[in-house]
Amino acid sequence: MSEQTLNLRRRLGAALILALVLIAVAGVWRAAGPARRTPTAPAGSAATPAPGPGADRGAPELVIGSLGGFEGWNPLLTERHPLQPLLFRSLVRYNDRMEVEPDLAVSWEVGDDGRTYTLHLTAATWQDGQPVTADDVVFSLTARLHPAADRMGASNLAALAGATEYLAELERLDREREAGRIDADAWEERAQAAYARWLAQGAVRAVDPRTVVVTFAEPYAPALELFTLPVVPAHAFASQAEALDPEHPFHTRAPVGSGPYRLESWVPGVEARLVARDDLPPAATPGYPVVVVRFFRDQDELDRAILDGEVDAGRLSPEAARQAVESGSPLRLVEFPDLGYTYVAYNLRDPVLADPAVRRAIDLAVDRQALVGELFGRYAEPLTSPALPGTWWAGPAPLPRHDPQAARDLLAAAGWRDVDGDGIRERDGRPLVIELLTHRENRYREQAAVMLADWLRQVGIAVEVRRLEWGELVAALREGRYQAALLGVGVGVDPDGYALWHSGGHLNFTGLHDAELDRLLEAGRRGGDRRATYRKVQERLVELQPALFLWQEIQVLAVRPEVAGPISGSPGGFLWNVAAWHPADAGDEPAVGAAGG
C-alpha cells in the first residue's frame, strides 16, 4: 500500500481528520538509484545550494525508504503524510501509547460549556527564524475551510462554530453552478463572500501572539484529534488561497516548517535530502544531522531495498516481514496497529443490499480468519465490527463466524432460491448478483475481492468484481453509484464515527439512517461516559450491518541495527519522534532482538 493511499485513507475516516482515506498515486514514476545517492536537483533553485550548517556530506545519514506518489510538502494539500513530522509540528501530537502530549501547544483548557478550547503556545520558531504565533494557528485551521480547499477534508472541521452552515452554503453554490444557474465568476464571488462571513465569526482567533481560542458549535469531545493537524507559517503566503496552490514553491521545493529538519533538495520520485536545523536548543537537536528519503515505485522494490540493506529504515509488507523473521535477519521489526480498517461498504439504497437477510448471509459466508491468515499471516486482525483492538474505546466484539449453511438457510427463508439450477439464487425473477468495486494498486484488497467472490458463490451469490482508479472509486461512493465497495478507512485514536455512520455524516456513503445510532453518535461528541457510549455504537452497527468489517492491519517498520534510539510507532506514524533516533555506538544497547523483536 502506498503512502499516498494511506494518506487518503485517513482523510476518509470519521473523526478523521482525514485522512480520507486515500489518493491514487500520481506523478512520474522513476526508478530509485543506489543507496545514499545525492540528488541531482535542488529543492530551491536550478543550482545546487551550498551546504548549510549540519549538511556536511560526511555527517551521519539516516536513509529512509518510502513509497512514491509523494506530490509535495505542504500539509494543507497532503495531510497526514508520514514524512511530515520531519518538517512540521502540530498543536498536540500522539505518542506511542496513543496519548495526547503537547507539541506547539504547551497547555490548554476547555471551557465549562465544552465548546471553547484555549491553547497556549510554546516558544518556537520557523526554520527561517520567524516565531511561531497564534496567527499561524488561525491561518492553518481556517485555510482548510477556504472555498478552494478539498471539500472532503474541510468537512472534518465542520464542528467549528458556524462551519456547518458555511459548508452547506458552499454546497448550494456548487449545485447552482452545476445546474448552470451561475457561472464560475459568480460562484467565486459568492463563495469568497461566504468564507469572509464565516471568518468574521471568529471560530478560531488569536487572543495574543501565544494564545489561540477555538470555538465549536456544540460541545466537541474529539477536538484534540483536530489539533494534531500540522501548522504552517502564515507569513509564507499572501493569502489562504495562495497557501492552497499546488504550484506554490512551499509545496514544490521550499517548505518552511517548525520541525527538526529543513528540506535541502528533492528530486520527485527519486530522493529528498533533509538537514537538521542548527538553531534548535541542544535537547531538541536531531540525532542524525542528515536524513535522506529514497522513493520507490512499489512495495516490492521497497521490500527488496530494506532486506538488502540499501536503506536504514522503511515499512515492510507482511510477506517481507515474514521472510525477515524466517531468515533470522538482524533487522529490528517495530510493529504498530493501523488505526483504520478495511471493510465492504454496502449501498443500503440498493434493493438487494437493503435486504437484511442478504447482508447477514454475506457475513456468515465469509471466512475472515482464513482471509486474514492467507493475506497477512500475523500482521492483521480479523474484525466483525469497527472496534479496533488496543484502543481505549473498543468493546468486546463478536468472534468471526463462518457458517455457509446458515447463510444458505437465511437466503432461502428470505425467498432467494436457485430455481434454474445455475448455482445463483433468484427472487421475483431477479438473480442475486452484486457488483463489488475496489481500487487498483492495493493488492491485498484486490486479492480479498476475489476470495470474497468465491465464498459468496458457494452460497448462491454471484459477485462481479470491478477495479477502479482511486478517484473513480471515491466519485462512485460520493454519488451513490455502487452496490458494494471494498476499501479502507482511517478512524484515528478518537472513536468519533459521526462522519461515517450518522445520517448527516459527510462520509456516510452507505446511506445508513438510524435514529438510535444518530443519538449515540451525537452523545459521544458531547462527552460524558464516551467509552460506554461508543461500545453501544459498536453493538448497534453489528445489529444493523451497514458494512462487512474485515480486518485491521499491523504496520511493520524494519530498522537496521546501526540505528538506535526510542524507535516506535504512533498514530502519527513511525517517524513521529525521528529526531530522537541516532547512530548506534558501543555504549548503546543492541537493537531489540532480531527480526520480530
TrEMBL record:
Organism field: Thermaerobacter composti
Ranges of biased composition (kind: Low complexity): 35-57
InterPro entries the record matches: Peptide/Ni-bd, SBP_5, SBP_5_dom
Gene3D superfamilies, per the entry: Dipeptide-binding Protein, Domain 1 (3.90.76.10), Dipeptide-binding Protein, Domain 3 (3.10.105.10), Periplasmic binding protein-like II (3.40.190.10)
Solute-binding protein family domain location: 99-503
Signal peptide feature range: none
Segments for region (Disordered): 35-58
Protein name: ABC transporter substrate-binding protein
Similarity comment: family membership: Belongs to the bacterial solute-binding protein 5 family.
Keywords assigned by UniProt, alphabetized: Signal, Transport
